[in-house]
Amino acid sequence: GTGMFAMTFTEYVLQLFVDSSAYDKIVTHSRIRARKEGPNVCALQQVEGTKKKYFSTCRNWYKKSICGKKAEILYECCPGYMKLDGMKGCPAVAPIDNVYNTLGLVKAATTQQYSDISKLRQEIEGTGTFTVFAPSNEAWDELNPVTALEDNVNIELFNALHYHMVNHRLMTKDMKNGMTVTSMYNDQGILINHYPNGVVTVNCARIIHGNQMATNGVVHVIDRVISSVTGTIKDYLESEEQLSSFNNAVFIAGIMDKLGQPGQFTLFAPTNEAFDKLTTFYISALVTYHMLNSVQCAEAIMAGSVYETEEGSTIEIGCDGDSLTVNGIKMVLKKDIVASNGVIHLIDEVLIPDSAKEVRKLVGKSQSIFSDLVSEMGLTSSLTSDTQYTLLAPLNAVFTDEVMADDEYLKLILENHMLKLKISLSTMFNGQLLETLSGKLLRVFIYRTAVCIESACMVRGSKEGMNGALHVMTSLIKPADKTTFELLDADGNFKIFLSLMETAGLGDLLRQNGSYTVFAPVDKAFEALGADDLDLLKSNVNALRNILLYHFSEGIIINGGLEAKVTNLLKSLQGKPLQLKSENNSIRVNSVEIPKSDLMATNGVVHVVKNVLYPTDLPVGHQDLLLVLQKLIKYIEIKFVSGFTYAEIPLTFISRLPETKTVIIKEKQPSIRTVTTVTEGKPSIKQVTRVIKPSGSKVEVDHATKTVTRVIGRQPNKVTRVIGGKLRKNVHLENVFIISLLKEESGKITRIIQGEFPYLQICKDLAMDQHD
């Protein structure tokens, strides 16, 4: 066929040598963007007010800017092609010639002229294979007067040009990031960097026209004149008087030797004037925060990009016109000081990493109200530089007028957002308890895409300072103070649900310790049922348990912990899965709307539902029950399978009431009574209450709620114990202690009876044991 033979020589050579490197991909994309302009045309962007042109990235192309400056679109011939009069695009291939003549072809006339002057012309016209990094005409113009070079053509100019040459062909595809190639001047090295955005630099000079083939090599036009590099970054620091303060800091930090070794480093070196602005800092963290383990030349920066520092955190290197920026601030005085092991940029400010700052200094603008209120409320005394603490800083929007109305309440809220210890994000685990400055305990919940504390979840941007950590929260943190039973009972809209739970023998599930997600139907969910319907429902305990336990899932799942717009599956205590979906900051369970979510309890979380939930694949075996459920549940079709019976669910997740035993101890002084309840089984917090009981009063001990009530009266002394709501026994007393204790406490009781401890110490010991 004609395909290969019709291909021009230059096209064939380019096909052989050009590979899909980042530079070549950018040129290809530029050609695609300009395809309407004719064959072999490339689209470039030129920064407004300058002569700087780029084969731009997609990001810069669509933003129509480079380094924050407006960029005009230009259409030029792609490298290696030429225009022909009267024809669209660039249909002609540039003639291939020796390196000397190719310099003229790529408009590197000054380099060509200096090759003549320095007697280099004969070499680059002759046999051999060369790569020439040819400074553009503008690059020579920007150089300090080159008179000295021209006056000493036999040495200086010849050597300078030889340093821009390599004695073999080197295409952009061969230029790997971080490689060093040997120049033709005393075998000194040239540092090559090839960046993902397509920029290729040679000692930080950018290739602006690459891969121009010659019969005896290749020419790459670069945007500045490069000079030989012999010293390391360490050598430069030690020789520059204006960097003496930073030089001392590097030495103290113990990384000076590293800066003298081979490597790929970028160092932002603050001047002495920059150091004079500082007060105190952590030397090691500060120095390593100025150092990258890669070479970032200024010409390769076309937009802000984030890089990891040697210290471990990140900085953003960007640009603003011709200025290099660090963390968005123009601070670079001199850029691209090339050393044998990297590059140095001089800056007029010292970069302070988070790890060298006090935690309070890490609070950002989006949390400024929290920071201001902490100061106004006098809470900063607890946040000194020698104290470890963690701030859970809510976003400004959560501080509404309602929250700000009561100073005492506000202060309590703020204290709940301040932890006593440094708690970094990486050390948090599900179920972890965090103690606040006010002594409250907060629970941590870890989800697939979120970390939450109580019902408030973190946003990205956690930071670690020298004495603690900062986490940004989406909402206010409110410690739970009621069980799910107490919460629902106090609300008053869940009477039927609570009644059914008691009937099914599941009431303790709402009271006991644990972590449950409860989908609680409001009373209106049952409004279609009459009294007979409810009686029928209550009569089949096994069916009732299946229905009710489908509203429970083990573990605490809150709205913020759900992955948005996907179905999250939860296993119910009944066994069938629940489908939970979060979208537009609201959630649905099995397509049922949840009007109110994230009601936090000490033993779980409640989500309010308007409908009773029922598994779609769970049939009903009796017609009368089916009719009741059809009145109750209308959003799904319930299947009828004659004779089907519900599986019996083992109630292993419910803590049974332990046995107790009563010890009656006579006491000589009836004016003081102590009632302590300690139950066998799982440890739980109990109250130790001292009751001052005058003669003729009655003490009632309710063991279900662990409260002690004093009733003034004339009746004989009597204690009424009520367990599980049922009257168990009345015991008449004459000046006695009634103590219900663990078997393990029997030794201590013996010593109490024998009078080994003073009374007050006994109360204190018992209270501590109960708390533990």
From TrEMBL:
Protein name in the entry: Periostin
Keywords carried by this UniProt record: Cell adhesion, Disulfide bond, Extracellular matrix, Gamma-carboxyglutamic acid, Repeat, Secreted, Signal
Sample GO molecular function, one term: cell adhesion molecule binding
Keyword Repeat: yes
Cell location: Secreted, Extracellular space, Extracellular matrix
InterPro entries found in the cross-reference section: Adhesion/Biosynth-related (IPR050904), EMI_domain (IPR011489), FAS1_dom_sf (IPR036378), FAS1_domain (IPR000782)
Membrane-spanning parts: none
Domain EMI: 38-92
Keyword Zinc-finger appears in the UniProt entry: no
Main location: secreted
Gene Ontology cellular component annotations, sorted alphabetically: extracellular matrix; extracellular space
All copies of domain FAS1, residue ranges: 98-226, 230-351, 354-477, 481-613
Organism of this sequence: Xiphophorus maculatus (Southern platyfish)
Top-level taxonomic group: Eukaryota
Example GO BP: extracellular matrix organization
